Amino acid sequence: MKKNIAVFASGSGTNAENIIRCFREDNRLNVSLLVSNRADAYVLERARALGVPYKVFAREEWKQGEAVLSLLEAYQIHFVVLAGFLLRIPEVILHAYPNKIINIHPSLLPRYGGKGMYGDRVHEAVVAAGEQESGITIHYINEHYDEGQVIFQTTCPVLPEDTPAEVACKVHALEYQHYPEVIRRIILSE
Question: Which of 77, 81, 111, 128 has the smallest set of CB atoms within 10 Å of its CB?
């Protein structure tokens, strides 16, 4: 029996699309729902094109969490994957899915994490600090931004002449390569 995955995303959705495509032919895992907090997020177009049902929740509805949890239960969601999702996960969902919600962050946590540190902001901070490497962190989530238990990290070099956009390209390549495989490994090892 397939295990159902929900992907939460707020933006363009390249990671969400990559995950959906990677599990399309998997007879054990299925991305059966996409949830967003933004009606104008391009990820909704990606979900539509790939035939994945989606739902947008307004901020107040999101904060309460009950409607989101009801939807997850209706779709028999086993595991939740954050892919560029920018809001804090409500306690009611955290408690319903202990150690079944993971996130990917575009830096080597605990560095360059926390509220407000996402996307280009992270890459700009890495370059401004003169870091020699960056990378990705895949972690379980808890009630604090980017503080959950680390599952996986991998690095890429940051050259002195690299721009934030060049660092972003390197980090995205790591995300696309590793996130689906880490998701698969975690879910199938349960």
Answer: 128
